[in-house]
Design goal:
By secondary structure, this protein is an alpha/beta fold. Helix content is 37%, strand content 24%. The strands form 3 sheets. The protein has a 9-stranded mixed beta sheet with strand order 10-9-6-13-14-15-16-17-18, with helices on both faces. A 5-stranded parallel beta sheet has the order 3-2-1-4-5, with helices on both faces. Strands 8-7-11-12 form a 4-stranded mixed beta sheet. Helix 6 links the parallel strand 4 and strand 5.
Length: 516
């Protein structure tokens, strides 16, 4: 067996070796990273690390825990481990199967933990991990050492020479760096950090997404219906629940106001997944909590899901007439003036009627609006039923439905809708093409930052959540559209609404996109 292959070992195997090194008086040095594209900077970093001790251990973040955006890492786990094992200065290579390196540090118990000089300033580390890492290292009697070599970037090389980003994104990023300077990512980060000052109220339809995963067997022999075999089922908090969870990872405090039926199992699920969002949910015996059950199959090779069909449980017109909305109205009237930003999620499922719209428009200090068209309300839930919003997000179909014009240009209709709603900011999302934003007389079209997609459900909601925060913060329209696009891209690589977009993921993907 090749000597290099002996270097790639498990955490358990190295733990058995660690005591031997201690008895032999050998100094153990640990380096950690993604090492997506091994380059000269890595070699210098690892050589300097090895010079600090006797045994150099390098740990590599497993692909499923790399949060640099869809399509990364470029090289798989086995390839990255193999690259490193071929280096003479490296003694052992371990795979780190976690978001943080904490387990590896506890296993290796390094005498010296080596980081690049870019981590010497803890404030510049968007992950916030350097402090906890140092504490664990010191717990075992070790210390941190920062290498002094020139900093290179695998991400920059991959973006510019390996096609890791779509070409339109590379050109967009270069344009932003020319406009705002080399520290554009830091400027955008400061915008995101300021979201923590905001107190946000989310008002909108709760949606429960039931995902039933199955394997297609073919057609039944008697009636030519699709035959599937059940695999597993998951339930996700969608609609206004999902948007509130996105916002809670950025804003200072988020409260959700909505209505639901008397379904205890759904209420229990909401209580379990919504913290830290404060939920004020009015229950009514005649209200039907929207449940959208989707049946999906997973493609065997590519990480993508195909929806076969859906069954929706929704409140109908007769049911709406029986619902007592008075408690919801009282809560709405009381709460609206208390919040910096009100985010409306109108899916047309029976929550927001004419009176609620009037309260929202009159009493919100800053009103963000998303009025969605879907299969159950097509042509009936149009954004122009509102008279005012400080910002809004629509998709292309919703924009053209609003004016009954299928051939008009998006930029013309977007400008018209901004005027009609008296909005300072507005966006139209265009799927794989990207998004067009408008703020005052300024427009910016930002391309989709990834073409790697698992599930598009909820991507628009993630875009809307970040766009609403950006609009309230008066962020430049191009940076705001980029941040919202990144949130949508992160969401397309999460099945359903299994987890919200987190701040650290957004900032790391932002740094990836702008590193050209």
């Amino acid at each position: 067996m090749d000597t290099s292959e002996h270097k790639i070992i498990s955490k358990e195997a190295f733990a058995n070796l660690r005591e031997n090194f201690r008895r032999e008086g050998k100094t153990v040095v640990l380096c950690h990273g993604v090492f997506d594209l091994l380059h000269y900077g890595h070699i210098e970093h690892l050589r300097e690390a090895k010079a600090q001790g006797d045994v150099l251990v390098v740990s590599v973040t497993a692909a499923r825990f790399v949060n640099k955006g869809p399509g990364r890492p470029y090289f798989n786990d086995a390839q990255r481990l193999s690259f490193l094992s071929e280096l003479d200065c490296v003694d052992y290579v371990l795979l780190s199967e976690a978001v943080t390196v904490h387990d590896i540090v506890r296993c290796v118990q390094p005498d010296i933990y080596v980081k690049g000089q870019e981590y010497a300033n803890a404030a510049s580390d968007v992950t916030g991990n350097i402090g906890p890492e140092q504490a664990i290292v010191e717990q075992y009697g070790g210390r941190i050492y920062f290498t002094q070599g020139e900093v290179y970037s695998s991400t920059k090389l991959l973006n510019n020479f390996f096609g890791a980003l779509p070409e339109a994104v590379v050109q967009m990023s270069r344009g932003l760096r020319e406009k705002y300077g080399a520290d554009v990512a830091e400027q955008a980060r400061r915008i995101v950090d300021d979201f923590a000052k905001l107190n946000v109220l989310v008002v909108g339809d709760i949606i429960i997404d039931d995902y039933v995963f199955c394997k297609v067997q073919g057609l039944t022999t008697k009636d030519a219906a699709m035959s599937t075999r059940f695999d597993f089922r998951e339930r996700y908090a969608g609609g206004a629940l999902a948007i509130a969870r996105h916002l809670a990872n950025f804003a200072g405090h988020v409260t959700l106001l909505s209505m639901m039926g008397m379904e205890q199992d759904i209420a229990d699920d909401i209580v379990a997944v919504m913290p830290p969002v404060e939920c004020r949910i009015v229950q009514d015996e005649h209200f039907v909590t929207p449940v959208k059950r989707r049946y999906l199959k997973r493609h065997a090779i590519r990480q993508q899901y195909e929806k076969l069909f859906s069954v929706n449980h929704l409140l109908d017109i007769d049911g709406m007439r029986k619902v007592d909305y008075r408690n919801f109205y009282r809560n709405l009237e009381e709460m609206l003036p208390q919040y910096d930003l009100v985010v409306v999620c109108d899916y047309g499922h029976g929550l927001i009627d004419a009176h609620a719209m009037e309260l929202l428009e009159q009493k919100s200090r800053f009103l963000a609006l998303n009025c969605q068209t879907n299969s159950s309300n097509h042509g009936h839930n149009i954004i122009t039923k509102y008279h005012h919003a400080d910002m809004f997000v629509v998709d292309e179909q919703e924009l053209h439905l609003a004016y009954g014009q299928s051939l008009a240009e998006n930029d013309e209709l977007l400008a018209e809708l901004c005027r009609d709603l008296h909005s300072t900011s507005g966006w139209v999302t265009m799927g794989a093409v990207g998004a067009l934003g408008r703020r005052g007389d300024d427009e910016a079209q930002i391309p989709a930052v990834t073409l790697h997609v698992k599930d598009t459900v909820g991507a628009g909601d993630a875009f809307y959540a970040l766009a609403a925060l950006c609009a309230k913060a008066d962020a430049p329209i191009d940076l705001a559209t980029l941040l919202a696009n990144i949130a949508g891209a992160i969401k397309t690589n999460v099945v359903g609404n299994a987890r919200p977009v987190e701040k650290v993921d957004l900032l790391k993907f932002l740094a990836t996109v702008l590193n050209v």
